[in-house]
Amino acid sequence: MAEPAEQTPFEALGGEAAVRALVDAFYDLMDLEPRFAHLRGLHPSTLEGSRDKLFWFLCGWLGGPDHYIERFGHPRLRARHLPYPIGIRERDEWLACMAEAMAHSAVPEVLQVRLADSFAGTADWMRNRPGSAL
Ligand code: HEM
Questions:
Q1: Which residues line ligand 1 (CB under 6 A)?
Q2: Inter-residue contact 69 to 57 (CB < 8 Å)
């Protein structure tokens, strides 16, 4: 008998609606929370495009449909972030915003820990300035 396929993080999270809720919580916090004003200031004046792109990207990154790649090709995330100064401060603010968004949008705790770890590795790899880019 075939082993049941292992559940992807995308499925464990609850599919597209849950990914969208997470992305909305993330950008709502970035937009409204004064602690994230510096991070917000690096983004475009309207976050609608950012919301769609992060949603499309995360669906594929979590093991779901490859919406981002279908539209834009390989993510090349580090290259795409080069126009934005990302140092330790920016990395840590992005991760703090995402950690709060995960807690607010009812991501199961085991998954929060696992995703926080993966986000930390990716966000650190995105750094393109020594120290803080203040
Ligand atoms: C795990 C960490 C991160 C992930 C998964 C992520 C993901 C993404 C994605 C998918 C995009 C859209 C790229 C495009 O198609 O143009 C994007 C854009 C962007 N990211 Fe990140 N990012 C991360 C970390 C960071 C950090 C640490 C910063 C700190 C400043 C940052 C700032 C930005 C900005 C300013 C944009 C442009 C927004 C826009 O085009 O609307 N990101 N990010």
A1: 39, 42-44, 49-50, 53-54, 57, 72, 77, 80-81, 84, 86, 90-91, 94, 119, 122-123, 126
A2: no
Cα 102 from Cα 115, distance rounded (Å)? 9
Angle at the Cα of 39 from the Cα atoms of 36 and 40, rounded to 5 degrees = 80
Q: pLDDT at position 3, please?
A: 59
- 81 C-alpha to center of ligand 1: Å? 6
Task: Calculate what percentage of the chain has a pLDDT beyond 90.
Answer: 91
* 65-74 per-position pLDDT tens digit: 999 999 999 9
Which ligand 1 atom sits closest to the C-alpha of 118?
Answer: 1
Helix H or strand E segment including 134: none
Where would I find the H helices in the chain? 9-13, 15-32, 37-41, 48-61, 67-72, 77-81, 88-104, 109-125
